C-alpha cells in the first residue's frame, strides 16, 4: 500500500505541518515554530474537535447514516467541522450555533455541506455565548426529531493530546514554550494534561484571546497572556508581512502574545506557536483596513521587549 495515499478526506485531519518561522524574531536567538492547523480539511483546528466527538459513536454504530444528529457549536468554524464529518458519513446534521459567531461565509459553507442551521442568540449583542443555554436548546431540538442522536456531553474528550504528541514527534527535543489560544479549549486542555502526565518541563502559555472571558481553567493553565482585539489584528498582519502566512484572528493573538514575551525568553529556547486557522475567512475583517478602522481603531506595533527570563 502507498502510505502517502489517504483513505478519505477525514484521514487528513491532524498531522498538520510544523514549520520554522525564521522571519518572526530573527535576532532573538530563539527557535520559533508554528503548528499550522489551517491544513486540516476545512481549514481549522476544529476538525480535530468534530472528528474526536463523532468518531467513537460512528464506530460503535450508535450513529448510522440517515439518523438525525443534533450538535451545539459556539463558533462558526466548529459548526463547519461538524458539517463536513456528518456529510462524509451521510448524517443529517442539525447544528444549533451562536448567531453572532456565524458570518455570511460560515452560512454559505454550512449550506454547501447540507447542514440545517438553527442560529440562536444566547446572550445580549456583544456578550459571550452561553454554552449551557446552547446545549439546552440543542437538547430541546433533538427531542422533536424522532431517533435523533444527541451526544451525552456537549464537548469532546478534553484530554485529547494528539496535537501536542505531533509537535513532540516533529522536534528533536521537547519545546521549551508552547503557546496555545484559549479559544481552542480542546487543544489547550489536552496539552496541559499531556505535559502533566509526562512531567515535561515545557512552559504552557495560555493566550487569552476571548474578548468576554470564559477561558478554560485548571492545573497547568497559570501563565496567561491576555490579548486585545487590536493586538490580535496586529499579530495577523505582522505574520503576513514577515512570513507570508495568512491566518485568522486567534493565530494573530498567539503572535501578539509571543511578541510580548519573546524578549523575556532565554536565547536558544524552542517555542511552538499553535495557529488555529487560516485567514481566508477573515479577508473582509482582519485584513480589511476599512473594517479595522471602523471596528478596532488604532492597531499597535508589536515590539521586542527586553525583560528578565520567564523562568
UniProtKB/TrEMBL annotation:
EC number: 2.5.1.47
Cofactors named for this entry: pyridoxal 5'-phosphate
GO molecular function: cysteine synthase activity
Keyword Zinc-finger: no
First-tier enzyme category under EC: transferase
InterPro entries xref list: Cys_Synth/Cystath_Beta-Synth, TrpB-like_PALP, TrpB-like_PALP_sf
Pfam families according to UniProt: PALP (PF00291)
Keyword vocabulary terms for this entry: Pyridoxal phosphate, Transferase
Residues in Tryptophan synthase beta chain-like PALP domain copies: 10-208, 224-277
Stated name of the protein: Cysteine synthase A
Organism: Kitasatospora gansuensis
Amino acid at each position: 500500500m502507498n502510505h502517502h495515499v489517504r483513505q478519505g478526506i477525514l484521514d487528513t485531519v491532524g498531522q498538520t505541518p510544523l514549520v520554522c518561522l525564521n522571519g518572526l524574531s530573527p535576532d532573538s536567538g530563539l527557535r520559533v515554530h508554528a503548528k499550522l492547523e489551517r491544513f486540516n480539511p476545512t481549514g481549522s483546528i476544529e476538525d480535530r474537535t468534530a472528528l474526536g466527538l463523532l468518531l467513537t459513536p460512528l464506530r460503535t454504530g450508535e450513529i448510522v447514516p440517515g439518523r438525525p444528529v443534533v450538535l451545539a457549536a459556539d463558533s462558526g468554524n466548529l459548526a463547519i467541522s461538524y458539517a463536513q464529518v456528518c456529510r462524509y458519513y451521510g448524517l443529517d446534521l442539525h447544528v444549533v450555533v451562536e448567531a453572532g459567531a456565524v458570518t455570511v461565509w460560515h452560512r454559505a459553507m454550512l449550506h454547501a455541506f447540507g447542514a440545517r442551521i438553527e442560529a440562536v442568540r444566547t446572550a445580549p449583542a456583544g456578550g459571550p455565548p452561553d454554552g449551557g443555554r446552547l446545549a439546552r436548546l440543542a437538547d430541546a431540538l433533538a427531542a422533536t426529531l424522532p431517533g435523533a442522536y444527541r451526544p451525552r456531553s456537549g464537548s469532546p474528550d478534553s484530554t485529547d493530546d494528539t496535537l501536542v504528541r505531533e509537535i513532540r514527534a516533529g522536534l528533536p527535543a521537547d519545546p521549551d514554550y508552547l503557546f496555545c489560544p484559549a479559544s481552542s479549549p480542546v487543544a489547550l486542555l489536552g496539552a496541559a494534561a499531556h505535559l502533566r502526565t509526562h512531567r515535561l518541563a515545557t512552559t504552557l502559555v495560555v493566550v487569552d484571546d476571548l474578548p468576554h472571558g470564559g477561558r478554560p481553567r485548571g492545573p497547568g493553565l497559570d501563565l496567561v497572556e491576555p490579548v486585545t482585539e487590536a493586538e490580535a489584528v496586529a499579530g495577523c498582519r505582522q505574520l503576513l508581512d514577515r512570513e507570508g502566512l495568512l491566518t485568522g484572528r486567534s493565530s494573530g493573538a498567539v503572535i501578539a502574545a509571543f511578541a510580548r514575551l519573546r524578549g523575556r525568553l532565554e536565547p536558544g529556547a524552542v517555542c511552538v506557536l499553535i495557529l488555529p486557522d487560516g485567514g481566508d475567512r477573515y479577508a473582509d475583517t482582519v485584513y480589511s483596513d476599512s473594517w479595522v478602522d471602523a471596528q478596532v481603531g488604532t492597531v499597535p506595533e508589536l515590539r521586542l521587549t527586553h525583560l528578565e527570563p520567564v523562568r
